[in-house]
Amino acid sequence: VQLQACGGGLVQPGGSLRLSCAAPGFRFSSFAMSWLRQAPGKGVEWISDIMNDDKTAYADSVKGRFTISRDNAKNTVYLQMNSLKPEDTAVYFCAADRYGVGASESVYDYDYWGQGTLVTVSS
């Protein structure tokens, strides 16, 4: 199963982007979905989850600026990113977790990953 993240690009500080992640080929509605990111030269950072009951969680670094949502009919998870900062520059990944572990940066806690989409915040 290959998740397909898209929507990245170059945006100025203070701008917005909406990432999407299509997740075909498995029972999407029963999985927790997550967004993680990896900035240049840094490790993977968990940033948000949405559970199969639509409960959400966010890292402190993005709380109040990013919003995760899901559309089970389209097997898609979204990440609306507002008030972007240069430190948000990273490759963003979506991941699926059948057990709803939550807030994990361990690859072993996820069943499926996307290929990543680059977000660059710069003037």
How would you explain this protein's 3D organization?
The protein has 123 residues and is mostly beta strands. The protein has no helices and eleven strands. The protein has strands at residues 4-6, 9-11, 17-22, 32-38, 44-50, 56-58, 66-71, 76-81, 90-97, 112-113, 117-121. The strands form two sheets. Strands 2, 4, 5, 6, 9, 10 and 11 form a seven-stranded mixed beta sheet that branches. It has a four-stranded antiparallel beta sheet with strand order 1-3-8-7, with no helix packed on it. A hairpin with a 5-residue loop joins β4 and β5. The radius of gyration is 13 Å and the shape is globular. The protein starts with a strand and ends with a strand.
List the helices and strands and how they pair.
Elements: E1 4-6, E2 9-11, E3 17-22, E4 32-38, E5 44-50, E6 56-58, E7 66-71, E8 76-81, E9 90-97, E10 112-113, E11 117-121
**How widely separated are the two ends?**
37 Å
Instruction: Provide the low-confidence segments as ranges.
Output: none
Count of DSSP helices? 0
Shape: globular
**Element pattern in H and E:** EEEEEEEEEEE
Structural class: mainly beta
Main features:
single chain, 123 residues
Provide a short characterization of the protein structure.
This protein is mainly β and 123 residues long. It is 0% helix and 46% strand.
